[in-house]
Amino acid sequence: MMRLPPNQRTRISCIVNGRQHSGFAESRTLLSDFLRHELHLYGTHVGCEHAVCGACTVLLDGKAVRSCLIFAVQVAGRRIDTAAGLADENGELNDLQRAFRRHHALQCGYCTPGILMSVTDFLARNPQPTEGALREMLSGHLCRCTGYTGIVRAVLDVVAKRVSSRSSCT
What we know:
alpha+beta, globular
């Protein structure tokens, strides 16, 4: 990693939600702050700033990470996906987002983008999780509104539909 004086800004170029973006950041600028304040992409929320709440979770090169723990200079040339990138180019929500809406898996919505990104990564690695495994993964997120019941129902609904869809195609 390059070393910069703390107040020197450097140009960072990365791909966010499939589109090339660039902006400037000091060496100490967090990815969450870079996304929000430099690139003006406000879908990534910041809660605790200590990686405890999960609100700032994004996908970095396809893997769920807490953007409050990563410096912007570390993402130069890399791919970042946020909840805003889950919908298609016409704004159609993906199956997970639709299930969250259908099962009332969000209340205030503050934690929802981070949870959606964690679930996206989780299902990519574990396409048929048990409810226990899902709840364990969700334990890395703090949500004061939902009690996780709607979230669990939504994710298990998506899993069932994806499994059904795969089995009907074979």
